[in-house]
Design brief:
The complex is a heterodimer of chains A (774) and B (171).
Chain A: H1 21-25, E1 41-47, E2 53-59, H2 61-65, E3 69-73, E4 98-99, E5 105-111, H3 114-123, E6 125-130, E7 158-166, H4 169-175, E8 178-186, E9 198-203, E10 209-213, H5 218-229, E11 236-240, H6 255-267, E12 271-274, H7 277-283, E13 290-298, E14 304-316, H8 322-331, E15 342-350, H9 365-382, H10 386-393, E16 399-400, E17 406-407, H11 412-423, E18 436-446, E19 462-468, E20 474-477, H12 487-499, E21 506-507, E22 511-512, H13 527-554, E23 561-564, E24 567-570, E25 573-579, H14 580-591, E26 595-600, E27 620-631, E28 638-648, H15 655-674, E29 680-681, E30 684-685, E31 703-708, H16 726-729, H17 731-743, E32 749-750, H18 754-766
Helix pairs in contact in A: 5-6, 9-17, 12-13, 13-14, 15-17
Chain B: E1 19-25, E2 28-34, H1 40-47, E3 66-69, E4 72-75, E5 88-90, H2 92-95, H3 103-110, H4 120-133, H5 139-145, H6 157-169
Parallel strand pairs in B: 1-5
Antiparallel strand pairs in B: 1-2, 3-4, 3-5
Helix pairs in contact in B: 3-6
The chains are: A alpha+beta (774), B alpha+beta (171).
Amino acid sequence: MATGGTRGTRLLGGRIPYIDGPLKVTGQAEYTDDIRRPGMLVGRLLRSPWAHARILSVDTSAARALPGVAAVLTGEKYPTPFGVLPITHDETAIAIGKTRYVGDIVAAVAAVDERTAERALELIRVDVEPLPEYTDPRMGVEKVAEPIHARGLLGTNIQKEVVQHFGDVDAAFAQATHRVRVHGRFAGVTHAFTEPLVTIAEATADGRLTVYSATQVPHYLHRALSEVLGIPMHRIRVIKPEVGGGFGGKSDPLPHEIVCAALSIETGRPVKMLLDREDVFYTNHGRHPTDNEVRIATDAEGRILAYDIDALIDGGAWSSFGTVTTYYNGILAMGPYRIPNFRYHGRRVYTNKPPSGAMRAHGGTNLRYSIEVGLDEIAEATKLDPFDLRTRNALPPNSTTINDFRITSTSFLKCLAAARERSGWDSKFRKLPYGRGVGLGCGFYISGSNSPIHFKPVMPQSTVHLKVDMDGGIAVHSMQADIGQGSNTLLAAIVAEVLGVDLERVRVPRVDSDVSPIDIGSYSSRVTFMMGNAARRAAEDLRAQLLRAASHRTGHPVEQLEVAYERIQVRHRPDVGVTFMEALHAAMERAGALTATGAYSSPPMGGSFKGARAGTAPAYSFGAYVAEVAVDPETGLYRAEKMWAAFDCGRPLNRLAVEGQVEGSIHMALGQVMGESMNYRGARLLNPSLLEYKIPAPAQMPEIEVLLVGDDDPEGPFGAKEAGEGPLIAALPAMGNAIYDAVGVRCYELPITPDRIVRGIEDRRKEGRAWKGA
Amino acid sequence: MPSRAKGAAANGAEATSSSSLKITVNGLPIDRPCPPERILLDLLREDLDLTGTKRGCDLGTCGCCTVLVDGRPTLSCLTLARLVDRRSITTIEGVTPVHGLSTLQRAFVEHGATQCGFCTPGFLVTATALLEERPHPTRSEIIDAISGNLCRCTGYTKIIEAIEAAAREGR
């Protein structure tokens, strides 16, 4: 058993079934909508049919008079703005003064049942004066007649503008042998988690408020509730039941959560606010519709000399994570290759559309697609194999990027080698018959944001508490949110591993702000690295207590003791020792019931320029994927036949879960490639349902071979890095480049629809440019 | 105003023109008044407290609400309760043994076929019906059978593996 080393461990590194599996396969796992509270009212939201309009009056008198209606709320009562980032609080719980998108909340009702609540909504009269609608970000980059928010830059709708320049990009381009320019266009996509958004709030006579919500970040919700409702955090209790998927879409504090709490305060009764699927689409916060232009310069041998990147990002009605999005759409270009000169201009612009926000592989996905397609073009121009081009440019381990990212471990070269070999690349690339092709795409992502943006005073990003029962059961308390990614299982396994106890002893109670130590939750792919380290340290704290007790019992100094399975014994003399239970009871004789704490802070990093902390992380993941596709040149229909996914997550601690993350990421990536798109006519969302917004079905999934080739990270828990978001990124450009290999059509726009492929094939034929003889 | 999905709009507690509904749910006979507009999903979740069946879309698109009606997978969010009068309903609670797990449930756990778990009950009752009808399905028969169920977490890979493993083991 390791005592802090990263090798020779017992449980970690294997395939650990999720500890909550039995509850989930029986339907016994409790999600928010499964909770019933006595006297619970039904909450409903009135949403705006106007994209941009001044609210002249909201007449709620008829709704209030309807029997069975307990409360009707409009915006004025809770004017305090909120938002996920402390620097961009631009939302209110209910619209005040004007509506900013079709779907904006203009009033809310609590009633005895659903039907009464719906009728009450119909009785609310809203008078408005229409305002100019801005549905395209290009309409908002200059001064506009009616800015969507007063905070837009200089009378425009620009929410955030980032300009960065490192090195000398113009000089690099001037001396370059090869230059490409990719203009990528990306439709908005959304998370499409299966569990709709839902909250229950219960204000009680002791002046306290309990809120159950489907959230990834209970702490951000806790803060927003406190700020907007004007109640101290210690009188609010936030509970996270099981959450049916998040992917970033449950990481902002959302207005319905605050409205639900307000309605409970108003009525003194529990209120449930369950959003229907259409409402979930209007709430959105999905991946931003984006136009980017990526220019790449290389020398004659394909060495990257410079990137010059511009991004125009459609933010929708609110800021959400948008400031981070704006940075990420440039700076996440800093890996997996060495970039000596870099310039970026990014703008995120408010539009009168549902807000965009953070979605799995936030900020790194659309940018990466354009880069990797551009590199494929460079490879073709330099007559280099795409693998050789990337190998030549790989970012070395223990290096610093030009914008001061600290790169520690990278197994990117091993990813490239594994994907190349396993896919049979050398016998397939440009060699498969017309209509079949292979493509390479690579990825790079943060393993937890280094910036704990909300923490004042400064404190560690993650804390874990352990509480030990008299019979040796161990409860792991933390505010990481298991939203299906298996983080409960991971923390339990880490604790069991360090203590040498059976996993069965360890349980992870649901997040409850009354007992869970503060943490900033599940986003930015931070849980394995940060919570994993905190859990490990908490377990080491507990182990130290047990070792001291065992030392008293055995008379051997602590330094001579080691942990074995359910036992503490003298090193090299396994017959001398005590059982885990004997050590525990000896420790309890002296200290009472045992508790332990562990915390994690990432080391100082990043430069000193404006925005330098964005994108800094204690580690980064890397990936190289090969897709093999079959394209029907007549119809443009295509399918992914196989995906080889080589990924560097450091040491995979739970292979079952890491594979699941990679497979699920590929599903989501293929959705964005093959058809997912938030479609608008003007400001109106045309497809707010899972019927019209189609995510891939079982028959559309390729065979997937997951290749986990990472070496141990020096700072990750037991050598691990993230595996939750990074695995998505490489899959998209691998598809785009494979379609090119199949039929010779470059796709710069996602989704890649069959008609675009057919048009590309026709253009080639008209121009007499044959591809693979066709 | 965005139009609302109307599937769940009939959730009123009114007992107007309620005539009696006689069904069997998970082997237990039930005889209770039921308004004509009552949706089967609401009957199960709200009236009978069988919350294992999930509400994902109210529009028949996600499959989370799948239950068995006389052994056939059925979208309970699109089914009026009165239409299943005198029929036998099996929910996820009904395919779960009193002690322990079914072979299929155990395979889902061992193969990591659950992530967030919200779609899991729908997949499990669907797969239970499949293996009842075809104890040794081919991979493409499995894919066909689950084509009405959406999962956003797993990419379906481990769900398919789990069903194959359960079929090998035999229920």
